[in-house]
Amino acid sequence: MKAPSSQTLLQAVAIVCIVGLLAMIGHKAVADVSLVWDQHSGLDFWKALARYLLRNLAGG
Fold this sequence. Notes:
Layout: H1 6-39, H2 43-57
Helix pairs in contact: 1-2
């Protein structure tokens, strides 16, 4: 059996890093949406979420 090459090990590390980044982004998204959910109810939630997303996309 041949030992794994350094390229294979680097690919495995890169995959683990990407999974970690996606997990952090997902956690932040869930936390932000639940914060808006707690502050606004009903149809006002969707308006508040849209305002929050557009404000953050603009860099505010």
